[in-house]
Amino acid sequence: MSRRDRAARGATEAAPPPRPDEATPLGNGDGRRAGEGPVVSLSGVRKTYGRGAGAVHALRDLSLDFTRGSFTAVMGPSGAGKSTFLHCAAGLDRPDAGTVVLGGTDLASLNEVELTMLRRERVGFVFQAYNLMSALTVADNITLPLMLADRRPDPAWLDRVVAQVGLSDRLGHRPSELSGGQQQRVAIARALAPRPEVVFADEPTGALDTRTAKQVLQLLRDVVDSTGQTVVMVTHDPVAASYAHRVVFLADGRYAEEMTRATPELIAERMTRLGEW
Ligand SMILES: Nc1ncnc2c1ncn2[C@@H]1O[C@H](COP(=O)(O)OP(=O)(O)OP(=O)(O)O)[C@@H](O)[C@H]1O
């Protein structure tokens, strides 16, 4: 089944997505508030792979801001630059030009060790593959990034995260004893445990069935609305994107347009106008 067919099917199966105006006030959970300025800001970002006639301009002068306490989906046709954007915004790769500022830090000012520390302490990641350590319990998987950063967990925050992802009674289990949806919830708790500035999610529901995917997306949305965490999610799926406050469309390495309060049908229609996806 093509992505477009899957999206159309998902759209008809989707429960009405949550609406920003129905949400609890942003940032009411931890004293941080929406509207304090962007937590991630890209300005004039360019990234080119290769040289000369074979050069591929993956990002061409991309400028984008992400507000603290917001849930943004980044979409676009295949090859639009979504993965390259995510890698540059998260400090996994360096742009050729332009600036990326994360939590007030210009990433270009950091050497490789400092960049690794920033990713470990201030950025959370959720991927399609859960990437859990099979030998560790759920509890140890969740606190692993803190241990690696030699940081003491904040017990109240950890309790809150574990309760929110619904894993309180699974902390002693191994990943192999959990369903796919539960494993992804462990990965989300692990991403949130250090209380990062921002969580980047790359197709976080790509490996899940429709029902489980919706539960995970609702969880991400609830986390943003109740704790003021910031989530930026790259996805091909209009149903997934409809759970976000804002959907940003990239095309040909550039910002194309954006929508708020979007339904899966409207998002799919916009994607179809932008090109093959
Ligand atoms: N390491 C690389 N070397 C050469 N070209 C690359 C590399 N990574 C990405 N590209 C090219 O850069 C462009 C943008 O790629 P990117 O993976 O960011 O797009 P995308 O929107 O994530 O695509 P998709 O939806 O298919 O995953 C594409 O033309 C791709 O072929």
UniProtKB/TrEMBL annotation:
Residues 40-277 form the ABC transporter domain. InterPro entries: AAA+_ATPase, ABC_transporter-like_ATP-bd, ABC_transporter-like_CS, ABC_transpr_LolD-like, MacB-like_ATP-bd, P-loop_NTPase. It comes from the Bacteria. Residues 1-40 are annotated as: Disordered. Keywords: ATP-binding, Nucleotide-binding, Transport. The keyword Transport applies. It holds the Pfam family ABC_tran. Gene3D superfamilies: P-loop containing nucleotide triphosphate hydrolases (3.40.50.300). One of its GO terms (molecular function) is ATP binding. PANTHER family: ABC TRANSPORTER RELATED, IMPORT ATP-BINDING PROTEIN. This is ABC transporter ATP-binding protein YxdL. It comes from Streptomyces rimosus subsp. rimosus. The lineage of its organism: Bacteria, Bacillati, Actinomycetota, Actinomycetes, Kitasatosporales.
